[in-house]
Amino acid sequence: MFIDKVKIRIRAGDGGNGAVAFHREKYVAAGGPDGGDGGRGGNVVFQADTNLSTLVDFKYKRRFFAENGSPGGGGRRSGRNAPDLVIRVPRGTVVRDAASGRVMADLSGEEPAVVARGGKGGWGNSHFATPTRQCPRFSKPGLPGEEYEVELELKLLADVGLVGFPNVGKSTLLSMVSAARPEIANYHFTTLTPVLGVVKVAEGKSFVMADIPGLIEGASEGVGLGHEFLRHVDRCRLIVHVVDVSGSEGRDPVGDFESINAELEKFNPELASRPQIVAANKTDMASSEQLAAFRGYIEEKGYPFYEICAPIGEGIEPLVYAISQKLDTLPPIREYEVDHVPLEERERLARNVFDIHVEDGVYIVEADWLMPALGMVDMDDYESLQYFQRVLRQSGIIDRLEEMGIQEGDTVSILNFEFEYIR
User: Fold this and answer.
1) Binding positions for GTP
2) Which residue ranges form the domains of the chain, and what is each CATH number?
3) Is the pTM for the entire model greater than 0.85?
C-alpha cells in the first residue's frame, strides 16, 4: 500500500524534577542541601531511511511519545536523561506543523532532524542555597517537552518526472530505460502510484526517473487523484512531458500538452517554468503530417522535441542522452527551507515579555515563561515565596503593577494562581 501523506502526534519527554534533599551523615551537623537535578526528557528525532518507500507504517500508529527524564535524587545525584525517540521515514519526507503549515524538517539527506525537543531537567535545591538562604526547601520542576501534531508528506526524490495524460506510454518508457517494472496495460490509470527507476547513462553516471500517474484536466483542483500525483513532481529537476502524438484516443496532442502545463501551473506556478523536454510517443501510429505539425508547434514554444516509440525502443537513446546533458546544467534537487523555531528559542525570545490588564478589580498577568518559576513555589515555605517575588521584581512585573496603581491587598492573578499584593 502506497501512502504519502499522514498526520501524527508527537511529544517529547518532560524533564525530571529537581530533588529537595539534605545531606545526612554521621558526625556531620547541618550538612546542607544536596538535591540533584532532574534528567532531560527524550527528543523526538526523524531519520531518513532508504529502505522505506511509503508512510504506510503511520496508518496504524499515530501517536509517538518519548520518555520523560528521571527525577534527581539526594547526594546531588542527577536523574537519568531519557533516550531519544527515533522515527524512521522514507527519504524525501517533509515534516510540517499541522497547525501553522511551517516546515519543521526536510528529510532529503542522511542527517537526522530533531523536531520536538525534550524538556530540560529541573534544578535540585542545592542550586538555591545562598549565605542568607542556607536550607532551601524548594526545587525547580522539569520543563515540559514539546508536543505537536505534524503532517508527514512524502515527495519523491527524483531528478526527472514523467508527466502526461493517462495511457500515453509513460510506464512503458520507464520500463525501457531502467530496471523498474511498473504495471503496463492498455487502459487509463494502470499506474496508481508513482514508480521510481534508475537510468544508467554511462559507467558511474545515472539519474532517477519517476513515472507520475496520469494527470487529467482539473488535477490541480484535486480532480481524480490530482493532488496526490502532482506533489511528486514538485522536487523534480526536469520534466519529461510524454504526449500521444497520434491522437489515438481522439484527443489533440497540442490540447493535451497545453492542458497538462495548465494543471502544473495552477498547482504550483514554479512547476510550469521548470525545464521540460517533450517526448512525442506512438510515432508508429502517427502520420508524417501529424508529426510535422506537432514538432513545429513545440519547437516554436522553445521546448526540446524528441520522437519515440517506447514499446520498441525507437528514439529512446537520444532522449536519455538529452536528459542527462540537461541535468548536468541544473541545480540539485530542491530542499525545503526549515522555518520552524524550537520552543526553547521561542521562550528565550519571549523572556520578560508580559502583558497586564485589569478585569473586575483583579490584575491579570499574562506571561507563559513564568510557568516554570510558578511551578516551584511552595505556598507553605517563606523562602520559596521570597524567591518567586524576586523573579517578579527582576522581570519588571512588580514595577509595572505599581505604575498601574496597584494597592496593598489588591488581587493579582498569574496563570490562574491568585494572591494578594503586599509591598
Assistant:
1) 164-171, 189-193, 211-214, 281-284, 309-311
2) 1-153 (2.70.210.12), 160-327 (3.40.50.300), 344-420 (3.30.300.350)
3) no
